[in-house]
Amino acid sequence: MIKQIIFNVGGALSSYVECNNYKILIDLGSKTDFHPVENFLLPLFKKRNESKDSNGKYSISQLILSHPHNDHISNIEEFHKHFYPSLVTTPNDNDGTPNAERINWSLIDNPTDNYVSFLRKNLLPSRRPPLHSIDSNVLEIFYNKCLQCEKSPMLDIKNYSNNISIVAFLYLNGQRILMAGDLMKDGMSYLIENNHSFASELSTGVDFLIAPHHGLQSSFSVELFNNIKNNKTNRLNIISEKTSYTDSNRVVDTRYSSSDYCNGNNNLSTSANKVYQRKTSNGHMIIDYSGREPIITIENSNDEETLINYF
């Protein structure tokens, strides 16, 4: 089984991936009426009678927390209560972390916030650097080094928290999925210009894009698309964002829904109506990569049984 769900958690982000024996969770955002742990992961693992470790926790292969903002870590306490990841990947300052990669907690918005404090006290201790992937055939990670985000004149210091985001490139049965975290425009440009491996991956193509910083206008990166093969994604641009209005400061950039930035090669498209973008505000997005062509399903129900039946 090779599947991914991008949860409808409003203006936040959380996604769960299963590929063969790997179970990967990317970010832990939640909203008042849906929590990825309580409303999906726990029911799924209980239904399967998954085994627990000696501490009574379920195991997953890798937890990636792209950066320590509340909209990416708000479900962290429940996760820690029930799950133990073999690998935790998130910006940190643990012993052994190269100086250039050590996070400056004082530059994180609300560095003493309860979720951030919980992360630092409970998930980071005993974890060892460097940041890496559980299997580079399934997942690769890329990031701007924290010191670069702090010191480089090319990067706006007010964007520090977002620009240290870990970017995930998933390779699932021939499909290439880019999860761009909350990189701002300057951070994306810097990563492309200074990380040749990342630029090379973009040039090979992107099928699905989980848009940077929830697809907001302030973060649309022309340079990202200029470096993607054919200057557009192949299948779909995905926006993890709550319903917004024209007078909101969280307006999704309309270019994501344009044929200029996506081919629309997906099962949601018809000959008369090509689909280039979908928002998770329309429902949880389940993508089955197991067949010759990926199948996208949008589920607007929060019912636990309904959701876990997709897996």
Class based on secondary structure composition and strand pairing: alpha/beta
Mind telling me the CATH superfamily name? Ribonuclease Z/Hydroxyacylglutathione hydrolase-like
Low-confidence stretches are none
Strand order of the main beta sheet, please? 5-4-3-2-1-12-13
At the fold tier of CATH, the topology name is Metallo-beta-lactamase, Chain A
Roughly how many Å apart are the termini? 8 Å
Range of strand content: 15-25%
Tally of distinct domains: 1
Q: Assign a percent range to the helix content.
A: 10-25%
Tally of alpha and pi helices = 10
- What is the chain-wise order of helices and strands? EEEHEHHEHEHHEEHHEHEEEEH
Bulk shape: globular
CATH class: Alpha Beta
Q: What is the mean pLDDT?
A: 95
Radius of gyration: 18 Å
Please tally the β strands and state the result. 13
Give the second-level CATH assignment, the architecture.
Answer: 4-Layer Sandwich
Largest sheet: 7 strands, mixed
Short descriptors:
alpha/beta, six-stranded mixed beta sheet, 311 residues, Metallo-beta-lactamase, Chain A, 10 helices, globular
List the helices and strands and how they pair.
Blueprint: E1 2-6, E2 15-19, E3 22-26, H1 36-47, E4 58-64, H2 70-73, H3 76-82, E5 83-89, H4 114-123, E6 139-142, H5 146-151, H6 160-163, E7 167-172, E8 175-179, H7 185-194, H8 196-204, E9 208-210, H9 222-227, E10 236-239, E11 277-279, E12 284-288, E13 295-299, H10 304-308
Parallel strand pairs: 3-4, 4-5, 8-9, 9-10, 10-11
Antiparallel strand pairs: 1-2, 1-12, 2-3, 6-7, 7-8, 12-13
